[in-house]
Amino acid sequence: MLAVKLFSGSGSMTLSEKIADYYGEPLGKSQLNKFSDGEMQTVISESVRGSYVFFIQSTSAPADNLLELLLLIDSAKRASAGYITAVIPYFGYARQDRKDKPRVPISAKLIATILESAGVNRVVTMDLHADQIQGFFDIPVDHLKGEAIFMPHLEKNLDMGNVIFASPDVGGVKRARSFSKYFKRDLVICDKVRKVANEVESMTVIGEVEGADVIMVDDLVDTAGTLCKAAKAIMDKGAKSVRALATHAVLSGNAYENIKNSVLTELIVTDTIPLKQASPKIKVLSCAKLFSKAIRNTHEFKSISALFVDK
Fold first, then answer.
1. CATH number of residue 225's parent domain
2. Do residues 107 and 20 both lie within one domain?
3. Which of 43, 75, 90, 288 is buried deepest, with most CB atoms within 10 A?
């Protein structure tokens, strides 16, 4: 069996160190050099010839994170690595998964093509914005589920007897329904009308939430505009409290201020993307253990679905 070597991009170093700690292997040595104009050069400082190499890097903003990952992959390919896996906890550009208006790119497909062209043999990621993005690749994709982290946390820390789950938009119903089925609780839907990207015009709650503790479920939170408006609409319909789960804490623009001033009791996220600042309303759960298990199961040819919560 090929020897395993784990490497981290600069954008996911903290998470990568946790993954390596759980896995029981130190991170491999690499460095990122930059010319005075910002041009990047990656250097792998140890042999990877014939090795099973894992590069850990979320492709969140800035775009340098994606470019650095591509350069690392190319470095390993040209150094005769035996098998290259890109571990991408947050797969950036996943929201652009279809052509919904004239003359726009399908960016998620483009990124998939670029990764394959760079020389990656496999991708491990978590909570893609749309499951069908896996079909953009012609290589194996292991799609982990954040519910494997969130569900045990809810069971351990919350009284689920008065809970109703909610989807903050129609597109996230499948994700929220997974939670409602597991906990055998009701589901409501927030129907939003959006004028432009990142700006919600109106929000309607479909379903009864009177006196309930509502938990909204989403794959990511960006400006938090949708989440906060949905939380207010739910509270206006008589809910007792509203909290939210979101795997990827993109949190751009006025997100932190929006969350602070919202009616949300709590926002629970994972560490696929490092927080830019601390917030008393934001709780971070680590996905490092889940990814370390996925890496081990991939290397040992064991099931990845065994890591999911049994419904």
1. 3.40.50.2020
2. yes
3. 90
Q: Is 192 a catalytic residue?
A: yes
Given 192, 232, 240, 283, the catalytic residue? 192
- Whether the full predicted model's pTM is greater than 0.90, yes or no, is yes
Residue 123 sits in the same domain as residue 227 = no
The β-bridge partners of 248 are: 220
- For 196-234, b/e burial (b = at least 16 CB within 10 A) is eeeebeebebebebeebbbbbbbbbbbbbbbbbbbbebb
Residues 244-285 pLDDT 10s? 999 999 999 999 999 999 999 999 999 999 999 999 999 999
pLDDT tens digits, residue range 198-223? 555 668 899 999 999 999 999 999 99
- Same domain? For 126 and 209 the reply is no
Could you give the CA distance from residue 276 to residue 30 in angstroms, rounded to a whole number?
A: 24
Regarding whether 188 and 202 lie in a shared domain, the answer is yes
**Structural domain that includes position 89:** 4-144+289-307
Tell me how many domains the chain contains.
2
